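User: structure tokens for this one?
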Amino acid sequence: MNATDAMCHLDAVAHSMPEPVLPPNALNSQISGILRATRPFLDPDRDWILRNIEVLQQQISVYDALLDRIDEVRSEMQRRRDTVHKSMAAYSSSLAPIRRLPIDGLRTVFREIQLSLWWNTEESESPQDHQALVFSQGPWKLSHVCGAWRDVVLSYPQLWSHIVLRSRSPDHIPRHTILALEAMILHLAQHPLDIVFELDVYHNEYAAIPAFSTVLEESYRWRTMHLRMSLTLLERLKMARGKIPSLESLTMKISYEAYDPPYSREVLHKDIRSVFIDAPRLQKVILHDACGLGDFMFPLHITHLAACTDNVSNLDAYQSLVECHLQVQPEPGPDFFLPHGIHLPNVRRLFVSSTHILTHLCLPSLDNLMVYGHEAPEVHTAVMTVNDFIYRSRCSLTRLATDNLVFIDKVFVKDCLLLVDTLECLEIVLFGTWKISSMLLLP
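Assistant:
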């Protein structure tokens, strides 16, 4: 490139631009007088005014033509500059510090990004923008940055181990979603799989069967399952019984029509309620909206459990529990049933929606109790229930949390709380709502 010659030519162009030819000052004074009304507009004035307008218009046309040509030259100059800049950026990028990071470092960063997005996938508010398979997850976005990152993503199976599949469309799950789901599983190799599979209550459940069948085929590698599904799809879980050796955490929510109250539901067949009983590594179980469906059976070694009381009437069988969330049936119906004298020696954290549940329990290791819900027992009944529970359990309660105003009644404080000499923290939640679905089980 000979920049000196180019600059000389541009200088020559600048010097060759025509100077404007304006009317003489005498005529300008007459025009000013006419505009300011200091002299009359005479008939002969029209002729010389029109002649000067024509001369000026011709000059404007010349300048317009020159400007158009300058614009063309500038556009071409900009295009050539952009071409050079693109090439320079490519060369400079090859020397960027991030290019010198070891692959293991990139994999660690990518993995942290994926984990941070795992439970933070925002659902689109606009139906037309909704995607059944959440492509905002780490590997999809990272693989589009550059070829080097794509190679890292494709060669690191752990990045594909988190799948979020939400079906909000009432009609179907697109075919390309199934293909993408199969591609993710293919990249996963033999690594454990964490899955969120959520089916909207108004979705055509039969249209979701192909996607759910694909997920079922991989049951042997499930590690974490977060399911929201209809009873129709729940029945298909029977296919996974005895084929879930890696499952460690299960969250399951049953979807119903709004007019289907818990007390009108039929008990599920035992084959469905016992699907997960043979999961050798299962530790955490959260069961939502399953009231009225009967007892569910899980491995006796689970350590964390959240469920309605009528789903775990065999609660005393789970002697390894360290944390337990129990909720009574939210709708009117038959009283819940739990046998009395349930002794769970290792439970340290208890979350109940009714103080009546405490009359059935004996928890000698309990140090953290949470009572929530809209139950409003008579204060003396509440005092007797809690005192009897603490005395029966012989536990050292250090923290009590509640949203029930009975617990801050002066009678309750005097006759109950002041007698709990191990209590270190009392948490009262006013005008708030605690729900079993919003609580996460601690490690």
